[in-house]
Design a protein that fits this description.
Helices cover 50% and strands 14% of the residues. It is α/β, with parallel strands linked by helices. The chain has three domains: 123 residues, no CATH class; 127 residues, 3-Layer(aba) Sandwich (Rossmann fold), CATH 3.40.50.720; 43 residues, no CATH class. Strand 1, helix 6 and strand 2 form a beta-alpha-beta unit. Helix 1 packs antiparallel against helix 4.
Length: 325
């Protein structure tokens, strides 16, 4: 089975990293067009507004990725900028729309925008890499699989602090001699595979990486069954036999693919959407069915000695037990 990587913006945790990546370039390009046109012509003419809509459509969602060097960011920014302006130039020339714009405005915009983009990338990149910001998005993780694959994954996580992942350790039934493998163990071996559910619950683990084969008779399948009530995100690290995971989505850690078996809905934009839908739908439905519910409650009270409202224990956010009515 082959999985195609789906780069859908809101499938990931929508933090400030994703927000910057999606919006920084389109917003700045449009802003610079407005700023230059107002500066040069004293007002913002309608044709520039039309052009800004076209530009935003071409550049959104943005594809800015924080680079390891300033030179790499300059190169990528210029390539992207020349591509966008080249498309606009061809479109404007073939349609005759180009003559409606001031050449001075377009030239100033063409020169100034990439400079502003590079400077903005540097400022935003420094902020997103700062300890104060990373502390606000830090998540805890464990790796199931004390092997070279797990070591390689942990090495990539710890080599890039912008992931803001606090790796607690490994779980496996057979410990690998960390001196024999190709990679070094970066965290302690905590326990066996089936110790994972209790550890995740007790320590509020956010992410579980599984770096073991998922054959039908392996403990991984049993582990997944035990984790069905968890709100942690679970990822498979490929180099495994995988069956019946049609809904799986591929992500990556610094270029190393991991497969999301399930992702918690209680984060980022999903958290907001779920909360709003819960409150709005529950309110509307309760208002509509309240007369019927009152009649049913009365019938239950008159016909049986038990409580009117049924309740039971369930697992909620962060694995906490909650009472559901």
């Amino acid at each position: 089975m082959k999985f195609q990587q789906q780069k859908l913006i809101f499938n990931k945790i929508f933090n400030r990293h994703q927000f910057a990546r999606v919006f920084i370039d389109p917003a700045l390009i449009v802003f610079m067009l407005y700023a230059v046109s107002v500066y040069r012509e004293g007002t913002l003419y309608p044709e520039y507004i039309v052009l800004s809509v076209i530009i935003f459509a071409l550049t959104f969602p943005g594809a800015w990725i924080q680079q390891k060097s300033w030179f790499a960011d300059v190169k990528n920014t210029l390539i992207h900028w020349f591509t966008v302006t080249g498309v606009l130039l061809i479109f404007g020339y073939t349609t005759g729309y180009l003559v409606k714009f001031s050449l001075t405005v377009l030239l100033d915009w063409f020169v100034a925008t990439p400079i502003v983009l590079v400077l903005a990338h540097d400022v935003v990149g420094r902020y997103l890499s700062s300890e104060s910001y990373l502390a606000t998005i830090k998540k805890t993780a464990i790796i199931v699989g004390d092997n070279d694959l797990g070591y390689q994954l942990s090495g990539r996580i710890q080599a890039n602090p912008t992931y803001a992942i606090d790796l607690k350790g490994y779980f496996d039934d057979i410990a690998l001699d960390s001196t024999r493998g190709s990679f070094e163990r970066k965290a302690p071996l905590i326990g066996a595979i089936l110790d994972v559910p209790n550890y995740v619950k007790q320590h509020a683990i956010d992410i579980i990486y599984i770096a073991l084969p998922a054959s039908p008779d392996s403990k991984v399948i049993l582990l997944l069954d035990h984790l069905k009530d968890t709100t942690a995100s679970i990822y498979f690290v490929p180099d495994f036999f995988l069956t019946d995971l049609i809904q799986a989505r591929i992500d990556d850690i610094d270029g190393m693919p991991v497969v999301a078996v399930c992702e918690t809905p209680f984060s980022g934009i999903h958290r907001i959407i779920k909360r709003l839908s819960d409150v709005i739908l529950a309110t509307v439905i309760l208002l509509l069915i309240s007369p019927l519910m009152l009649l049913l409650a009365l019938g239950v009270k008159l016909s049986s000695p038990g409580p009117i409202i049924f309740k039971q224990r369930r697992y909620g956010l962060d694995g906490r037990e909650i009472i559901v009515y």
